[in-house]
Specification:
Heat Shock Protein 90; phosphoprotein; single chain; 11 helices; 6-stranded antiparallel β-sheet; elongated; 400 residues; transferase
C-alpha cells in the first residue's frame, strides 16, 4: 500500500478528528425508518437497494455527492469501480480507481471509517480528473468477516463537516446492506443450485431412456448373432459393464458437468482385462476431453474392440498385446488399435457379428466418423477417425 498522508502545509488523513468534533443529537426513529425502507426494497425491488442506500447515506450525513466503490479483484491487485453515484460527481459513474493508491484502498485495509481532506493534492488521478474534495467520509463494506465488497464514500462541500454521528449512521446503513447482500447472494446461489438440479434431472431422464433403448438393441441383435447361450450372456455382460463404467464417469462429473479424459475412459474399460503386470495394453496419446454425452459411445467402441481381440485376435493368447494410440488434427480425433503377438492373421473374418455392426453403428452413425481395418499377419490394425465436434468437450464449447 502506498499512502501519502501529509505534506509540510496540510494533512490529508484526519480520521482522528471524527469523534473529537461535536455531533448533533441523533434521530434514532428516523434511522430505524431508513433501515425499514431498505428492508422493504430488498424484498420487493432488490435492484433498488444499493442506489437507495447511497441516497440515504448522503442525505443523513449532509453530503453533496456519494457513491459506492465496488472492489474488483481481478486482475490483481484489483481496482474499484464507481457505481450508483449521485450528486456533483454523478458524471463519473462506472469509472475505475486503483486499489493500491486510493482512499478506498486505505479504508478497506483499516476496516473502519476513514476521513480525508483534499485528496486531490496527493492522489494524482483525482487531480487529473479535475475533482476537488474538501472532505470525504469513507466506510468499508464487507460480506462476512473477510470478503470486501468495496466502500461507501460521501463528499462534503466544506472541511470540518463530518463528525462521529455521521460515521455511525453510515456504518449502520452499511452493516445492514452487507447483511442484505449476503442474504441475497445466498438466495441466488440456492436458486442456481435448484436450476442445475432441474437441468440434471431432465438430462438424466434423457440418458436413462437412451440407455434402455441401447440395451434393448443389444439384447435383440446380440441374441440373433450369438452362437450359444453362454456366448450371448458373456457378450452382453461385457457390454453392460462397459456402459456401467462410462455411466460412472458421467456421474462423477455431474456436479460441474465435467467431461472425462479419453485415457480415463479407455482405462476404465480395459482394466478388467489388463494383465497383472499391466503389460497387455499400452496407451499413448495426448489429453483429449470427451464431453459427457459421448462417453458411453466411446466406451462401447473400446469394449467391442477388446471383446473381438479376446475372442479372435491378439488377446486370445497369453503373449498378445494391444497398443492404443490417439492424436488430434484440426477437426478430428484419430485413434489406432494395433494388435501384436497373437496368432498369425490368415484372412479377414468371414462372419460379421453384432459386435462389428455395433462398432459401425456407433462410429459412423452416432459420431459421423470412419472405421477401417488392416488385416496384417502380425495382428489387425483398426483406424478410427471421429469428428472433434461430436466427441470433444473443448470443440463443443467453441462451436466447432
Amino acid at each position: 500500500m502506498r499512502m501519502r498522508c501529509t505534506t509540510s502545509s496540510f494533512e490529508v488523513d484526519v480520521s482522528d478528528e471524527l469523534f473529537r468534533r461535536p455531533a448533533a443529537s441523533a434521530d434514532y426513529l428516523k434511522e430505524k425508518q431508513d433501515i425499514q425502507d431498505l428492508a422493504l426494497r430488498l424484498g420487493e425491488a432488490p435492484a433498488e437497494v444499493l442506489p437507495r442506500f447511497v441516497e440515504l447515506a448522503m442525505r443523513r450525513t449532509g453530503g453533496v455527492s456519494a457513491g459506492l466503490s465496488i472492489f474488483e479483484p481481478d486482475p490483481a491487485p484489483g481496482v474499484f469501480r464507481w457505481r450508483h453515484l449521485i450528486g456533483e460527481l454523478a458524471r463519473f459513474d462506472d469509472a475505475t480507481t486503483p486499489r493500491l493508491d486510493s482512499p478506498c484502498g486505505v479504508t478497506l485495509d483499516r476496516a473502519r471509517p476513514v476521513l480525508m481532506q483534499h485528496v486531490e493534492r496527493v492522489y494524482d488521478w483525482v487531480a487529473k480528473a479535475g475533482i476537488t474534495v474538501p472532505e470525504v467520509l469513507l466506510v468499508p463494506l464487507f460480506v462476512g468477516a473477510n470478503e470486501p465488497i468495496g466502500t461507501l464514500w460521501i463528499v462534503a462541500r466544506t472541511k470540518g463537516h463530518f463528525h462521529g454521528g455521521h460515521a455511525r449512521i453510515a456504518t449502520d446503513l452499511a452493516s445492514f446492506v452487507a447483511t442484505a447482500l449476503r442474504v441475497q447472494r445466498t438466495e441466488q446461489q440456492l436458486q442456481a443450485a435448484l436450476e442445475r438440479s432441474e437441468t440434471l434431472a431432465h438430462e438424466m431422464s434423457h440418458r436413462v431412456k437412451n440407455l434402455f433403448a441401447l440395451v434393448n438393441t443389444m439384447i435383440r441383435f446380440g441374441a440373433r448373432s450369438a452362437t450359444s447361450k453362454d456366448d450371448f450372456a458373456q457378450s452382453l455382460s461385457g457390454r453392460l459393464l462397459a456402459l456401467a463404467s462410462a455411466h460412472q464417469l458421467v456421474l462423477s462429473g455431474e456436479a460441474t458437468a465435467s467431461p472425462a479424459e479419453l485415457a480415463h475412459i479407455i482405462g476404465s474399460v480395459i482394466e478388467a482385462h489388463q494383465s497383472e503386470g499391466g503389460l497387455r495394453f499400452a496407451l499413448n496419446g495426448s489429453a483429449v476431453s470427451i464431453r459427457p454425452q459421448s462417453i458411453s459411445g466411446v466406451a462401447l467402441v473400446v469394449n467391442e474392440l477388446v471383446t473381438n481381440a479376446l475372442k479372435y485376435g491378439a488377446l486370445a493368447s497369453d503373449e498378445g498385446t494391444v497398443v492404443i494410440s490417439w492424436t488430434t488434427d484440426e477437426n478430428r480425433l484419430l485413434m489406432r488399435w494395433e494388435e501384436r503377438g497373437g496368432a498369425a492373421v490368415e484372412a479377414p473374418p468371414e462372419r460379421i457379428g453384432f459386435g462389428s455392426r455395433l462398432l459401425d453403428s456407433t462410429i459412423v452413425r452416432q459420431f459421423g466418423g470412419t472405421l477401417t481395418y488392416d488385416w496384417r499377419r502380425e495382428g489387425v490394425l483398426v483406424s478410427i477417425a471421429l469428428p472433434l465436434s461430436a466427441v470433444s468437450a473443448k470443440a463443443a464449447a467453441i462451436g466447432l
